[in-house]
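RECORD TYPE: inverse folding
INPUT: structure tokens
STRUCTURE:
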């Protein structure tokens, strides 16, 4: 009888620890998703800013083009949506100044 009580106590203890671990994992996942979304927003903002800065002249400095391309690649790798694809199509046709 005492063995059953001890076994039940061990099971309850293990389930409590497991529940705590699951709560921790969920909180970490939410923080990671929030950080990812923030990073995507910053990358998108940088690309849009570059676009509007140069869209009238359609000329862009080489380092700005390189930065734009790196931002775009990172944005897409992080699951960024297709919003920026049309902007990229236009930017890559601009004249690059060295």
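DESIGNED SEQUENCE:
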């Amino acid at each position: 009888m005492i063995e059953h009580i001890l076994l039940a106590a061990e099971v309850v203890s293990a389930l409590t620890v497991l529940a705590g671990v699951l709560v921790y994992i969920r909180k970490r996942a939410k923080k990671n998703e929030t950080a990812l979304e923030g990073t995507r927003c910053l990358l998108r903002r940088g690309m849009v800013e570059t676009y509007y800065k140069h869209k009238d002249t359609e000329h862009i400095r080489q380092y700005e083009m390189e930065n734009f391309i790196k931002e775009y690649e990172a944005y897409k790798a992080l699951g960024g949506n297709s919003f920026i694809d049309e902007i990229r199509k236009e930017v890559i046709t601009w004249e690059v100044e060295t």
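NOTES: The chain has one domain: 2-97.
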